Amino acid sequence: MEPKKNPQLDVKRNSLLYFFVGMTLVLLMAYLALEWKSYYPSADWETSQVNPDLLIEEEPPITFQKLELPKPKIQTPPIIDVVEDEKDIEETVIEASEPDQNTEIAPIESIDVAEDDVPDEIPFVLIENAPVFPGCENEKTEEDKRTCFQEQILNHIRKNFRYPEVAKEMGLQGRVSVIFTVQKDGSIGNVRLRGPHESLEKEAARIISKLPRLTPGKQRGTPVKVPYSIPITFKLN
Fold it and tell me: Which of 235, 218, 236, 228 is nearest to 154 (CA)?
């Protein structure tokens, strides 16, 4: 069977040759483009090529400046006051204060002895003899009297405790910090309170006001003021 197309007229016959010729032309054009060089137009002359010996040397002009001298300072002579000599001058004689064999010694009876400096107020934990609650006088040691004092204070609070009606209605509860001072005569004074509500503070003040007269605390045998602090807790059941 004979082919219908003429092999001489086939387009794909020399396609590989055309491809290589085209690639060669493209590579040649790329190479020429990369190696292409261009230059800026040069001036008529360049300063780097000028001979420095041919340049004209210019000497700076010499100028003279006249400096003005500072004006001299004229100082006025000091004024001297002539003071007349004092004729009668009394010299002060400073006597030695150190004792010697002629110094008189004061008798012992005339020397005042300073009294013991006892503070006016001493805390409960530092005082020598703590205040005594009625009924604790028969305790033997000082430590037992302190323990009895604290127990009697707690018993007094439980016995006289009464929850305020206003606090119950409002649902108030909390702790009231109470600080009072046992005076030198055994009475209670200088009561300070701090709590969550005024009604609770008033109730705590009422309880403390019912404390009996105590035996005052003593420091070196001298009655002194003794501050004491205790919390009172208000809690709804």
Answer: 228
Query: For residue 136, which of 124, 122, 126, 147 has the smallest C-alpha distance?
Result: 147
Q: List the alpha helices (DSSP H) in 11-124.
A: 15-35
Take residue 4 and report the two structure tokens written for it.
Answer: 């219908």
H-type alpha helices, 36-176: 142-160, 165-170
Top pLDDT among 50 and 195 is at 195
pLDDT at 18: 84
- Residue 197 makes CB contacts below 8 A (sequence gap 6+) with 167, 170, 172, 174
For residues 227 and 127, the answer to whether their CB atoms sit within 8 Å is: no
Using one digit for the tens of pLDDT, what is the confidence trace for 163-185?
998 888 888 889 999 999 999 99
In a domain, 14, yes or no: no
Structural domain that includes position 217 = 142-234
The rounded distance, in Å, linking the Cα atoms of 136 and 138 is 6
Number of separate domains in the chain: 1
Cβ atoms of 117 and 192 within 8 Å: the answer is no
Single-letter amino acid code for the residue at 190: N
206, part of any domain: yes
